[in-house]
Specification:
Layout lengths: L1 H18 L25 E6 L7 E4 L5 E4 L2 E5 L5 H12 L8 E6 L9 E5 L5 E3 L7 H7 L12 E5 L5 E5 L1 H6 L13 E5 L5
Parallel strand pairs: 6-10
Antiparallel strand pairs: 1-2, 1-5, 3-4, 6-7, 8-9, 8-10
């Protein structure tokens, strides 16, 4: 009986060890797309410059609903647009009051749209949402969140890539952070979710 119980426990341990360590493909080392343009999101600030109209030029925040309000232009959607697109839309709105307005939009205090933010959950020092930056890597992400906790199983971590139909990739964060194995580093993409599970032992 004792032998049966011992064998059963060993079998359970093997199942837990192998079943939870599902092999996922590693992410592509490079994820940057050359045509990427930063999109404005709630929490950003936009500096609007209207040529020869200083009274209409100002810095305004993008509200939580993704809109901005400026003199003569109320509730204009800004979230999800790049700065050039927003400038053209402001010009169109101002053309009702000004002849041939010329507008420049400069984005500051970058946050970005929610769909493009990188989220880090699980066994890290500071789980949080990060603004995506071009060529951002896993190492950059881990530095920003303060690294792994003592209970993290970093080599069973994964990336959920929402931009690729929720494709999953396995990442070796323990090797990257604790051993300095740069081959475990990879670029992240806008909207990635990095998930770090707890170690079983």
């Amino acid at each position: 009986m004792k032998r049966i119980v011992t064998t059963g426990l060993l079998t359970l341990a093997v199942v837990l060890a192998t079943g939870c360590a599902t092999k996922l493909p590693p992410p592509p080392a490079t994820a940057t797309t050359p045509e990427y343009n930063y999109l404005i999101g709630p929490g950003d600030k936009v500096n609007i410059v209207v040529w020869r109209n200083p009274e209409l030029s100002m810095t305004v925040p993008v509200r939580p609903d993704g809109k901005i309000t400026t003199p003569l232009v109320e509730d204009l959607p800004a979230s999800g647009r790049d700065s050039s697109t927003l400038a053209r839309e402001i010009e169109k709105a101002l053309s009702k009051y000004i002849r041939d307005p010329v507008v420049t939009v400069i984005v500051t205090d970058f946050v970005g749209p929610y769909a493009e933010q990188v989220r880090v959950v699980g066994e890290v020092a500071r789980p949080q949402t990060l603004s995506y930056k071009q060529k951002m890597t896993l190492l950059d992400v881990m530095i920003a969140v303060g690294g792994l906790t003592d209970f993290a199983d970093g080599n069973r971590a994964k990336i959920l890539r929402t931009s690729d139909n929720n494709a999953e990739y396995g990442v070796r964060l323990r090797d990257l952070i604790k051993r300095g194995d740069v081959s475990a580093n990879a670029e992240v993409k806008p909207g990635d979710v990095v998930i770090i599970p707890q170690s079983w032992f």
